Amino acid sequence: MSKRIALVGGGTGGHVTPIVALSRYIREKHPNTELLWIGEETSMEQRFAEQNTLPFRSISSYRIPSMHSFHKMIPALFRMVRGFFEARTILKQFKPDSLFSKWWPGAISVVLAARSLNIPVYIHDSDVIPGASNRLISRFADHIFLGFEEAKSFFPWKETEVVGQILSPDLPILNTKSDAIHFHSPDKTRVLVICGSQGSRTIHQALVDQMSSLGDFEFIIALGTRNEEFQEVFAQFSNVQAFPWLGESLGDVYREADIIISRGSATTLSEAITFGAKVIAIPLPIAAFDHQRANVRVYEAQWLVTGLEESELSKLWELLKSLAGRRIYTAPRFDILEGVKRITEVLMK
User: Fold this and answer.
1) Cβ atoms of residues 327 and 254 within 8 Å
2) Residue 180 falls within a domain, yes or no?
3) Distance CA 83, CA 89 (A)
């Protein structure tokens, strides 16, 4: 008998791409499984769902205000309650065997709706310091998957399991299309710059300012959704290729890069160290609960990761020079699919 699984997650690439990765793996291994993605209307998650032909339903969205914004609390609570009833209607119609949730503020409404219908709930948190909504909904979860051992202490009341990050099953696949993206200069140190789905204006500008000192390096830069103007700026440098996103070429570029410059996203850092590149991690200083800096600290202690504060970006070119040269590992060091395999195994029971 085929399973039905409802999926929840959205807002940023770090919470959308794991849902895509999980759905692709489930479809590949269990093609009769029915999936439904619940998220926000006209959002990143809806766009990705449509691109991957995943059925999608939306509910009222909201942002959880801080305690210092009491005037925003009442409207948020109103939309949360409305979202609960919308989600309950969707779940009653879909009748899932289980609900899997990544971070998304609206996930609170969906998880509560699932519990009211006795639907088992599973959540995954990527970070060393879990997000507020995941900490809240964890009390209603049947099982909690974690990206880091260090996160266990935030969930003393529930069973947890460390599975690592949810990485795309497409990463190991070579892109043989004619428009595939590759590095072209065998005599230069190859650097991939990938700073999340939105990109980083601050990091991109620092690279522009220091590019005159970086002629011995070749760069491929994933600009993200909010930095399109840098495409024209980077075009003036012969050693730079800049793209809004790398799409199906991401795995190829990971394999070729000697150095990866990223933020402190747990997913990106995990992808980078899996493929064996040296990493310069620049945590976003305004990240909730400072979780990116915590992620970087853990990876610094265990892998080929060097942390650099955003306030020290003027030293980026010096750090790049110190790391110049070919990657140390030439093949993936870990099973890329370890996390997605284990989560799928549990969901399909």
Assistant:
1) no
2) no
3) 10
* 33 and 156 inside one domain: yes
Q: Can you tell me the mean pLDDT for 265-278?
A: 90
pLDDT value, residue 64: 66
Contacts of residue 212, Cβ cutoff 8 Å, sequence gap at least 6: none
Residue 339 in tokens: 């996390």
- Could you give the 3-state DSSP secondary structure of residue 6? strand
Would you state the pLDDT for residue 74? 76
Least confident of 151-160, 197-206, 321-330: 321-330
Same domain, 34 and 135: yes
Handedness of CA 235, 241, 242, 247 (dihedral sign): positive
317: domain CATH number is: 3.40.50.2000
The answer to whether residue 202 scores a pLDDT higher than 90 is yes
> What predicted TM-score, i.e. pTM, was given to this entire model?
0.90
Q: How far apart are CA 168 and CA 260, in angstroms?
A: 18
Are 144 and 212 part of one and the same domain?
no
- On whether both 121 and 210 belong to a single domain, the answer is no
Q: In terms of residue numbers, what domain contains 11?
A: 4-170+337-347
30 and 141 in a single domain? The answer is: yes
Q: How many CB atoms lie within 10 A of CB 69?
A: 11
Pair (50, 98) in one structural domain: yes
Tell me whether residue 222 is exposed, middle or buried, using C-beta atoms within 10 angstroms of its C-beta: 0 to 12, 13 to 18, 19 or more. buried
259 contacts: CB under 8 Å, gap ≥ 6: 189, 190, 191, 192, 277, 278, 279, 280, 320, 323, 324, 327
Q: How many domains does the chain have?
A: 2
Q: Mean pLDDT over residues 301-318, rounded?
A: 91
Give the dihedral sign, CA 125/290/192/42.
positive
pLDDT tens sequence across 23-79: 999 999 999 999 999 999 988 999 999 999 999 999 988 776 555 566 667 777 888
Residue 127 clears pLDDT 70, i.e. is over it:
yes
The answer to whether position 178 is within a domain reads no
